[in-house]
Amino acid sequence: MRAQVGIVGAGPAGLMLSHLLHRAGISSIIIEARSRAYCEARIRAGLIEQWAADMLVETGVGARMKRESMVHDGIYIGFNGALHRIDFKKLVGKRVTIYGQQEVVKDLIAKRIADGGQILFDCSDVRVRGFDGKAPKITFRHGGKAEEVDCDFIGGCDGFHGVCRSSIPANAISVYEREYPFGWLGILAEAKPVADELIYAYHQRGFALFSMRSPNLVRYYLQCAPDENPDKWPDHKIWDELETRLGGTKVLSRGPIVEKIVAQMRSFVAEPMRHGRMFLAGDSAHIVPPTGAKGMNLAFADVLVLSRAIAAFYRNGATGLLDSYSDTCLRRVWKAQRFSWWMTRLMHLFPEETPFDRRRQLAELDYLASSEAAAKSLAENYVGLPID
Ligand code: DHB
Predict the structure, then answer these.
(1) Per residue in 216-255, pLDDT tens?
(2) How far is the CA of 151 from the centre of ligand 1 (A)?
(3) In a domain, 119, yes or no
(4) What is the secondary structure of 300-363 as a DSSP string?
């Protein structure tokens, strides 16, 4: 098999890269280890920055999102038993779209297939080779046969545990990492939203987040131990704890819990994001803790920059944008890292912190609720920083 770009991974990064390349007249093949059903069911956050929602619509893959999503002009932050609204529209003139990541994945897969794109699911033994030279290739087994894709470039879009980053010699890569001493217990429930916009709540028992997927499907998270066993959380205990941590400001509409997971929290960046003719994008290069929901948005930013660089190369042989890919992405990645870390630190209880730190957190929350300058900084980052 041959394609101009071989892509490993059919998550948001790989699918969007393939879609953007197709629109630029560049061929690609996606190699994915999992099944289509697995990719489409993988539940992640559900918050799309304004530029990214615009890109989905402008590139012809946003029709269902426009129909089914909810557009929010702000968020609430909760502390000391009260809610305070941060109005993004007023502060920075932008909004965010609430739409599940797996819905975006479904829409992108459907669009690639409708456009004649090639996605090979259920591949095993996936390896990337030759990316240091001029003839990279991806080898794998598919349908019981050994196969390979010859390509000019490899898109390493296979996530944190994927083969692309781990195929780079350790001495050619620098890793910056931070783990957090807690996780998130996340639920999806068939119940009515408790508010019209998301609530990020600070409480002495730990952080809680209210989010939603539709007028009848809600998503909540509770700060928990990193190795928390979700089976130790019967439904009534989850609802009671959520109500407590949301500060007694709301009585929750309760309903059947249809999913219960524990998410790990990590900050991670691997530099550089380019190795010869292989380009890492999305979670294969960086992970953010979920507070602020930057993961998919960062993946989209990477592949937008990458697709422009590859298109310039095929247009006139220019390599400048390929050469600057890693630096361009990392400048924005690090700002999103800083924001995700800041929001995580602001909202969670850290076991090593003291009563001084709790007072400091409450002062910072009060500052956000009372200072337009502070609120504007949150808003600017939350709705998404510009793409260079
Ligand atoms: C969601 C997740 C987040 O981490 C966040 O900050 C906002 C929303 C979500 O799953 O809807």
Answers:
(1) 999 999 999 999 999 999 999 999 999 999 977 778 999 9
(2) 36
(3) yes
(4) HHHHHHHHHHHHHHHHH---HHHHHHHHHHHHHHHHHHHHHHHHHHHHS--TT--HHHHHHHHH
